[in-house]
């Protein structure tokens, strides 16, 4: 479906053919080959065959498996938005970075009492505006 969309779009605007040809390899040749190697590593013969003893699946990313620290800012903001009563307790908010608390308060100012209610099918207008502004700043420089 996405490939058809990209092919049609690439006729209207130039899109790198590698982008059009890209595949989301959740179940493709690379993970299938990784499964074969993992099975081989479970045998003495397989362990002798490869210069490594374990495998990390990275075909769709897996940063924490490679000991990259997780991105916490977004999780902190979401935890406060999902449980806005936490913002009323200074002992709790003092455990969060000030910018996460400020962002949660800002977002709650737009969405009300927390998450869970239905929104516009395209998402919150304020969030779409922020994304559009940041993309514009990225692509055209901050004005």
Beta-strand residue fraction:
under 5%
Helix and strand sequence: HHHHHHHH
Mean pLDDT, to the nearest integer, reads 88
**What fold name stands as the CATH topology of the largest domain?**
Helix Hairpins
Cα(first) to Cα(last) distance is 37 Å
How would you sum up the global shape? flat
Output the number of helix runs.
8
**Structural class of the secondary elements?**
mainly alpha
Q: List unreliable stretches of 5+ residues.
A: none
**In which range does the helix fraction lie?**
55-70%
Rg result: 23 Å
How many separate structural domains?
A: 2
CATH class term of the largest domain: Mainly Alpha
Largest sheet: none
Query: How many beta-strand segments?
Result: 0
The assigned CATH architecture of the largest domain is: Orthogonal Bundle
InterPro entries: ALAT1/2-like
Enzyme class: transferase
Cofactor: pyridoxal 5'-phosphate
EC number: 2.6.1.-
Strand-helix topology:
Blueprint: H1 2-12, H2 17-21, H3 29-41, H4 44-49, H5 73-82, H6 90-93, H7 98-111, H8 125-140
Helix pairs in contact: 5-7
Brief digest:
With 143 residues, the protein is an all-alpha fold.
Question: How would you describe what is shown here?
Answer:
GO terms for molecular function: L-alanine:2-oxoglutarate aminotransferase activity. Its EC number is 2.6.1.-. This is Alanine aminotransferase. Keywords: Aminotransferase, Pyridoxal phosphate, Transferase. Its cofactor is pyridoxal 5'-phosphate. The protein has 143 residues and is mainly alpha-helical. The protein has 2 domains: 1-68, no CATH class; 71-143, Helix Hairpins (Orthogonal Bundle). The chain is 55% helix and 0% strand. It is built from 8 helices and no strands. The protein has helices at residues 2-12, 17-21, 29-41, 44-49, 73-82, 90-93, 98-111, 125-140. Helix 5 packs across helix 7. The radius of gyration is 23 Å and the shape is flat. It starts with a helix and ends with a helix. The mean pLDDT is 88.
């Amino acid at each position: 479906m996405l490939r058809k969309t990209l092919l049609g779009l690439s006729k209207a605007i130039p899109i790198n053919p590698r982008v059009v040809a890209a595949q989301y390899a959740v179940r493709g040749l690379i993970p299938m080959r990784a499964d074969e190697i993992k099975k081989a590593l479970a045998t003495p013969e397989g362990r002798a065959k490869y210069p490594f003893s374990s495998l990390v699946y990275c075909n769709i990313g897996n940063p924490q498996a490679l000991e990259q620290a997780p991105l916490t800012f977004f999780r902190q903001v979401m935890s406060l938005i999902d449980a806005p009563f936490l913002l009323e307790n200074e002992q709790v908010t003092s455990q969060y970075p000030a910018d996460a608390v400020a962002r949660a308060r800002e977002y709650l100012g737009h969405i009300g009492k927390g998450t869970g209610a239905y929104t516009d099918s395209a998402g919150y207008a304020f969030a779409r505006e922020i994304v559009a502004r940041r993309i514009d700043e990225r692509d055209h420089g901050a004005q």
